[in-house]
Amino acid sequence: MATNIKVNVVTENMIKYCYTCPEAHKCDTEEKCIACWEAKGIIKQEDLEETVTTAKLLRQYAE
What we know:
mainly alpha
């Protein structure tokens, strides 16, 4: 489930930020996309990790 949340965030960001980017063809892996977003100040790796952590906490509360 946590992986799905990260995938959803990455997919959403790809639609948001990569669709209009003239260099989008260079980002052919998830890691390259994340590195590009970090370089441009769009997102931090910690933000993705926090999302996964929050999801884990919410699942724990639900149990």
